[in-house]
Design brief:
Elements lengths: L1 H17 L2 E10 L4 E7 L4 E7 L6 E8 L5 E8 L13 E4 L5 E10 L1 E5 L7 E4 L2 E3 L10 E10 H7 L2
């Protein structure tokens, strides 16, 4: 009888621990919920989303900082031209780097999630902790994908590493 109680307590403890939060993860999902990327992050980490502008055909890079509240803070963008789609808010700090790129700082816009559409031209990629993930090769052309920061749990971490 004592062994059954010990066993039951161990099983219940393992179940309880598996649902404990263990940090945060950057998650890229298709619109249908299929997970494409699952990468641990912490507050202050920077996530870069790069792509080629579909009209201007120049590189664009967006810098997002991971917040403690699991939100994405857009802090900076780098554009390869001064053309279509360049933000023009007076509070932004826009500079030219002399190499053909416009740097826009002081954006400080917060998002719960960011949505993009894949395509032959944009060739989206994401950089987290210096690891580059070619989203364009993971999701078919013409499909939406969504970047979010989610709470991570012990069980989820274990399953994602298998």
């Amino acid at each position: 009888m004592f062994k059954k109680h010990i066993f039951l307590m161990l099983v219940l403890s393992a179940l309880l621990v598996s649902f404990l939060p263990t940090g945060m993860v950057a998650v890229v999902k298709e619109k249908d919920g299929s997970v494409i990327l699952y990468e641990p992050v912490k507050p202050g980490d920077v996530i870069l989303v790069g792509f080629t502008h579909s009209v201007e055909k120049v590189p664009d890079i967006e810098y997002f900082e991971v917040g403690r509240d699991r939100k994405l803070l857009l802090t900076r963008t780098i554009y390869g031209s001064m053309g279509a789609g360049l933000p023009s808010d007076d509070t932004f700090n826009v500079t030219y780097d002399g190499n053909g790129y416009f740097l826009i700082d002081n954006i400080n816009k917060t998002f719960d999630s960011i949505s993009y559409m894949t395509g032959d031209i944009p060739k989206h990629y994401i950089i987290i902790h210096e690891n580059k993930y070619p989203i364009y090769s993971l999701i078919p052309e013409g499909k939406q994908f969504i970047l979010t920061i989610e709470q991570n749990y012990a069980l989820k971490s274990l399953l994602s590493s298998i």
